[in-house]
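TL;DR need structure tokens for one chain.
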Amino acid sequence: MKRFRNFSLIRWLALALIVSALLLLVFQLVVFSRLRSSFATGSVIAGVDVSGLDVDQAADRLTQVYSVPVEMRYGDSAFQVKPATLGFSLNLSSMIAAADQARAALPFWSAFWDYLFNKLPESQEIPIMADIDVNQMRTFLVNEVAARYDQDPEPYSPVVGDVFFTAGKSGMALNVDRSIELISMALESPSERTVNLSVEKSTSARPSIENLKVLLSQIIDVNEFTGVAEIYMLDLQTGQEMQFAYMDGERVTPEIAFTAWSTIKIPIMIEVYRQKDEPMDDETYALLEKMIMLSDNDASDALMKTVMNETLGPLYISDTMQKLGLKNTFLAGMFWPGAPLLREFTTPANSRTDVYLDPDRYNQTTPTEMGSLLYDIYQCAQTGGGTFAAVFPGEITQNECRAMISLLSKDRTGMLIEAGLPDGTQIAHKHGWGNDPVDYVIHTMCDPAIVYTPGGNYILSIYIYDENQIVFDNGNQLFAELSRAIYNYFNIGSF
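>> reply
TL;DR here they are.
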């Protein structure tokens, strides 16, 4: 009887253990089933932790996170923009489906076995899936951001009564393409939703040609010059030209006929090199040096007599100028006193009735034409091409043009255009002035030049005239200030 009782107790204990085990198993199955309907610990969708969340909950969290506005900063300004405004749309269904598929991929019973032994499933990470309408974002940035916050630079402006320009003010401009990249990264981030927009500083624009003309007018007025001044400038980098003529406080039409004085020796030099073959003989070169460096008239006459024609040399020069397209530049006689006038020249410039300066019948030019002639030399020296090569093929070489510039660089007087340049500035030019043979005073001063500067090379041709008299020191000061103003125009920021 006692043995029977003991057996029954053991049986009942065993049965109880089995039932308990079964109940525990069922309980764990229920718990696991519930857990399996949710995302496992460590599950991440689009950078958002969705551990323990079911599909609907995960979708809600993702929507909430990626609906947070993006904060944009433009300089000191900050504002928030909704993702939808920027063309952002989250591909929620695709991401949830991908995550759910990864969750359900592991067989139920093997997953349950791992669960019983506390072996957690590998975490799943689903990358963001979203669409961004770049065109919509660009439109917003251009029309709403750039239009509101961009600032145009303030240009340099002329200083009244001086040779300088006031400093401008830099501007701000949105770099749209780079900003699109930065915003796109913020839209696709669950936490880094602040963007410092890419903004570029724009430097002050160089003064316009009109600004320069205003400054030149002011300089002439301050110097109380009441005659006629004409200036030609050519930017050798861009090809931009300036023609400026000023008389009695008013601008007038350029291309005025001036007495050329010694600037006509530039055409003489060109004709000598056209006529002579390389290498230049020593005697001829010595005459060229005297003509350019010392402005020697006898040397000029000797060159025309020996290289061109005993009596008609000046007309050779005039003919060459005509072939080069210069209608207002001519030499009609030798320099020696009493030399006969070989021809009467009527030109568009000396036929004007609005401005007439009574130019010398023997030699005339305009600032523009003399500047153009220097450009022909410069272009030939740089490339071997240009007008010389087109009009006189093979007659004026690149080496000869370089020799011309070298000669013009030896005209070092420290006056006129050169007086307005910083020490050490390279200049190739030919100055000109003289006492009128009738009243023995200076009426015309002139100086065409090639100027080489850090801010760019340029042609500058300045001619001034006063029917009464030009006091040399006053005229020289005017030249220096006009020259410095134009140097400053090319070298903004260096002063």
